[in-house]
């Protein structure tokens, strides 16, 4: 039997199409025509001898084989790009300071740093996992080169947007997070117990404003300096936390807002911010790896939710 050799360009078009939800958009991203991308997908299906997509309403969804191919395609592309980056950037030196949310600390940071360190062993990385306000302040102060943050639309960040130094990655839904252990009798007029960060928190402000507008009383049941503390309190039933679905531990889940009589919350832009619109080569290399990792993480999360 002859060995099947998948084409990296075809795999890249496949993954990009899945991530963007459109092969027309994927064609723009990879610099090919839509017909060329379609031909690449057909070639992959010929090589695997099975359909990778099935019809789902007006769109397309991955088959079981397509889900398997997606996981392997991401790994193959990552290894390809890592090899290309490593051979081109063996002499790359410098220092990169990266900041990101606790939501992504365990899920993304080890893989991102490991991949970058293998490709660029002479570049030193300083990583900081912190709250959104702290990340933005440090970025403005020149203490970070890159930050994966929630966009709170303050003026300094708007100026960065205008300079083209930010990339929008996703707009996840903010939600009410709790567990089956939650004891709250809304019918009896009990205020909703909240577990919140012990300082300024944009998501908490959004949630409490929504509760006030809906006329729902609330109280602070617990404050914590860390996200782990919020998850522990929510899992124990002490109250409800407010966050997106990123990084949720298995001990808690998104609550059905309507079932609990809670107001729906808005989406929140997740962005990668650079301290400069013309970053140094090591910063740009790390930004590329972070973007790829986050897009893959977001895409997988969306597929699991569906």
From TrEMBL:
Ranges annotated as spanning the membrane: none
Entry-linked Gene3D superfamilies: Periplasmic binding protein-like II (3.40.190.10), Winged helix-like DNA-binding domain superfamily/Winged helix DNA-binding domain (1.10.10.10)
Superkingdom field: Bacteria
Species lineage: Bacteria, Pseudomonadati, Pseudomonadota, Betaproteobacteria, Burkholderiales
Keywords noted in UniProt: DNA-binding, Transcription, Transcription regulation
Protein name: LysR family transcriptional regulator
UniProt family annotation: Belongs to the LysR transcriptional regulatory family.
Annotated InterPro entries: LTTR (IPR050176), LysR_HTH_N (IPR000847), LysR_subst-bd (IPR005119), WH-like_DNA-bd_sf (IPR036388), WH_DNA-bd_sf (IPR036390)
One Pfam family linked to the record: LysR_substrate
An annotated Gene Ontology molecular function: DNA-binding transcription factor activity
Record-annotated HTH lysR-type domain positions: 6-63
